[in-house]
Design goal:
alpha+beta, D-Maltodextrin-Binding Protein, domain 2, 7-stranded mixed beta sheet, 862 residues, 19% helix
């Protein structure tokens, strides 16, 4: 008998036994993000988005598949329902993949947070895979991923407050007496996986039918899900008015194999493939249930389960859906295109003579170096032109318009010591859905200038004592946000900084440029106090005299360094430094996922039994108590449906990273003097200052290649990819091949540039025409009509001459020599590592990746 079970009964002090050793948790395999192999970080045992070649849900699709269910519709025992007026709206129920969805509701009741019991008047949210055999319009509770939280009121089992014969008939098959005479009957709802595997706390004698409790089984820590891997929400509350909202993590078979959501299901005629469906369950809990005086028993027990609301969820089928034997081509660089390429892939790879495009996320500058200097190099994905002296040999094709954003999950906690307006009291524990940030506020977060961003217990006397603990206590923040923020009492390190990805990226480069362009932010980093007296952490000061290193911190960079060397060593534990206290995320998509789960990534307890000893990981924050900020992409934020911040643009307006804001930024973008064919948002330009509706961190992504590559098959494959991306791939929609949410269709002149670039790449090397000695040839293609006109008078930016006629080489169906070869070892977990690959190593990228990554990863996830 496990201690967990016994502790739920008043007699627990009279009987204690060591907790049963939990079964070994099933480890989730590393999955593939958007595209073929764009890795996502592993947190606990959850990984990425899975091997899904499908688009993220678009705004249109999200609204068209939204569903509202009510207790009046579904609860057949409405007279005893804890919330008879409950109505829940689910933002998306079709074309689902590993992502987030949004739930909102009315008709609840004022909630009480859990303490020794599960709380009062709250909701539980989780997923199930199977239909009830007696009622196919409802899920089977034995197929629900529930109990992993292992908290009061959220377990699969408990001791009952009835005698055995008083237990409802529906729970009798799962109930038995224990071998301890004074303990009441035990009920444990088994879990049955989609493949038929089962974990059960009750053993039945096959001869006599007698039932006994299997003391070796812990239903809540089992081989199928644990507190680290489960996506269930064990408690989410309503405000005083009974309304609320929460983001929920949808898991596919890649993250929750036991549920099998999205597993391919082929029709009997073999013509169509769909994804296996699952159920979303919203379970209302009152003040007491299951014969108890409080909420301390399982929501799966029939007295509670009969009030569950359920919605069927349809999934995009998992799998590559690309023909076997298709040639494979490598794309390398920006993560920003990953969701778009994931959508385009299954259509492009099924086109005549096309290829499977494997995506490897690496620093864009390294990908550009490889593309410019290595024969048959991967197609580079970048938001900036190559930093190089002389002529850039690359041709740039704009293929996507998206952005970088700040995600947030911050729940309201009115300050009990303030005179708080009633409307703010009523909204307690519900999430904020909007926030404004300025460049200076972002500089404060990224420079670890708030006191709580540094380890507790460390000597931080060098930090100004007037610096606030976190951003929500900063008068600078309160001055640009809703007055409601001023009535909150919010704490925690995850709102004193912003979770950032590890490594070098163009996204980081854009963020620092945004900060550096703002006079207020630049002055703050240089050491000037803000109007309320807050001063930059000196280790991030751009003034050499202020910086303890006596070297100015440079904002001309493409990473987010943990520059403060602060350390603290607690008693009988290991050293905590800034990386330990506020760890990096692996990539932008991982940050959106952490935001969705409310995972602030703080260090847990020191584990002396680990080899070597290390700090564990804090559990994610319970909905209603979440407080974190993260830096992610617009596409990832939309995929996981997390709240994002509005940023102040050069025109002085706060703009959200929605379609309108991102699209409005494009006309204000311009090419650089070094390369006019690659646009970016110039924060100091007159166009930017006039673009009142523009989102300032909107970013284009370009595909870049050398037309002088010798292999015609590779050039043709790259050109075909570009043409699809800027053609059919720009149509917004939820289906494979369309443009996912978080991207904006390209302006017409960008599409024209991309088509010309594709032609130049496919045509190949140009026989040079004798020119004056001052002529410098270029393969660049201007971005926009105005830039093209200017480029016409600038030989260095001229379009390439018409190529000589060339007989196309037939596609062989095999990868190029640079991307094929002997078998290499299994891929490591590259989510966080690739960001640190140096340029010198990446110059040989094509040769190093001898076997196309997608082939190996396909074998691993099959």
């Amino acid at each position: 008998m496990s201690e967990e079970r016994v502790s739920q009964h008043p007699s627990r002090r009279a009987y204690r036994r060591k907790a049963a050793r939990p079964s070994v948790a099933r480890r989730a395999v590393s999955a593939i993000t958007a595209g073929a192999v764009c890795a996502i970080a592993v947190f606990g045992v959850f990984v990425g988005a899975g091997a899904v070649f499908a688009p993220a849900a678009t705004a249109d699709d999200t609204s068209s598949s939204a569903v509202t269910v009510t207790a009046a519709q579904q609860d057949k025992a409405l007279d005893s329902a804890p919330m008879p007026d409950l109505a829940v709206t689910v933002s998306q129920t079709k074309n689902l993949l590993a992502q987030g969805i949004r739930l909102s509701w009315t008709g609840g009741k004022k909630s009480v947070a859990p303490s020794s019991s599960g709380g009062q008047n709250f909701l539980q949210v989780f997923m199930c895979w199977g239909d009830d055999p007696t009622d196919p319009t409802r899920p089977d509770r034995t197929t629900c991923m529930y109990g992993g939280a292992n908290s009061p009121g959220a377990t699969r089992d408990a001791f009952r407050n009835y005698s055995l014969d008083e237990i409802p008939a529906e729970d009798q098959p799962y109930s038995a007496l224990t071998s301890v005479s004074f303990l009441p009957p035990y009920t444990g709802i088994p879990f049955v996986a989609r493949d038929g595997a089962r974990v059960d706390g009750i053993k039945t004698d096959p001869k006599t039918g007698a039932k006994t409790v299997d003391e070796s089984v812990n239903l809540n820590v089992n081989p199928f899900f644990t507190s680290y891997s489960t996506n269930e929400i064990s408690w989410v509350g309503s405000g005083d008015d009974g309304s609320g909202a929460v983001s929920f993590e949808v898991q596919t078979a890649a993250q929750a194999p036991a549920l099998g959501c999205g597993n391919p299901v082929v029709s009997k005629d073999g013509k169509t493939t769909t994804g296996a469906s699952c159920w979303l369950v919203v379970l209302p809990r009152g003040t007491a249930d299951n014969g108890s005086s409080s909420i301390n028993q399982s929501g799966l027990f029939i007295e509670s389960w009969r009030h569950a609301l359920a919605v069927r969820m349809d999934f995009t089928p998992l799998g590559t859906r690309c023909p076997e034997g298709t040639a494979e081509r490598l794309l390398a660089g920006s993560e920003l295109t990953s969701n778009a390429i994931a959508s385009w892939q299954p259509v492009v790879c099924n086109s005549a003579g096309a290829a499977v495009y494997s995506v490897l996320t690496v620093p864009e500058s390294d990908a550009l170096t490889a593309a410019a200097t290595t024969e048959d190099a991967p197609l580079a994905l970048t938001s900036y032109a190559r930093d190089a002296s002389g002529t850039d040999p690359l041709t740039y094709a704009p293929i996507a318009l998206t952005g970088v954003t700040i995600s947030l999950s911050i729940d309201r906690h009115p300050d009990p010591f303030k005179d708080v307006p009633q409307k703010y009291v009523d909204a307690a524990r519900t999430p904020f859905t909007s926030v404004n940030l300025t460049p200076r506020l972002l500089a404060k977060l990224l420079s670890y200038s708030y006191r709580s961003s540094l380890p507790n217990g460390a000597n931080i006397d060098y930090l100004n004592k007037t610096n606030p603990d976190n951003i929500t206590k900063d008068p600078d923040f309160l001055a640009v946000n809703d007055p409601e923020w001023g009535f909150q009492n919010l704490t925690g390190p995850a709102i004193a900084d912003v979770i950032v990805p590890q490594g070098r990226t163009d996204s980081a480069r854009a963020v620092w440029a945004y900060i550096a362009s703002d006079p207020e932010a630049a002055a703050f980093l240089a050491g000037k106090p803000d109007p309320w007296g807050m001063v930059v952490n000196p280790w991030y000061s751009t003034d050499a005299d202020t910086n303890p290193t006596k070297t100015a911190f440079s904002v001309d960079r493409d990473d987010f360094p943990k520059a403060d060397p602060v350390e603290f060593t607690p008693s009988n534990a290991g050293v905590i430094n800034l990386v330990t206290w506020r760890p990096f995320a692996a990539d932008l998509s991982s940050v959106a996922y952490l935001t969705l789960r409310g995972d602030g990534q703080g260090p847990g307890f020191w584990d002396v039994n680990s080899v070597p000893p290390k700090y564990g990981k804090l559990p994610r924050m319970l909905p209603g108590n979440q407080a974190l900020l993260g830096l992610t992409s617009a596409a990832a934020a939309r995929r996981y449906q997390v709240v994002t911040a509005s940023l102040r643009n050069p025109a002085g307006k706060f703009v959200a990273p929605d379609d309108t804001g991102i699209a409005a930024a494009a006309p204000a973008m311009a090419g650089s003097k070094a390369n006019p064919s690659v646009d970016s948002f110039d924060f100091t330009s007159d166009a930017a200052r006039a673009a009142t509706a523009a989102y300032p961190l909107a970013m284009p992504v370009y595909a870049a290649a050398r037309p002088s590559m010798k292999d015609a098959n590779i050039r043709r494959a790259y050109a075909q990819f570009i043409r699809y991306a800027v053609g059919p791939g720009q149509k917004r929609g939820p289906d494979a091949g369309q443009l996912p949410d978080g991207y904006v269709p390209l302006p017409a002149d960008w599409t024209t540039q991309a088509q010309k670039a594709a032609d130049a790449i496919e045509s190949g090397p140009v026989t040079p025409t004798p020119q004056p000695s001052s002529y410098i040839p270029s393969q660049s293609v201007p971005v926009k009509a105005p830039a093209a006109a200017a480029a016409a008078s600038a030989p260095a930016a001229a379009a390439p001459a018409a190529p000589a006629a060339e007989t196309p080489t037939a596609a062989s169906g095999a990868a190029s020599a640079a991307l094929s070869g002997g078998k290499t070892p299994d891929d490591p977990d590259i989510g966080a590592i690739t960001a640190a690959v140096p340029a010198s190593a990446l110059a040989g990228l094509a040769g190093a990746l001898a076997v196309p990554l997608i082939t190996r990863l396909r074998r691993r996830v099959t």
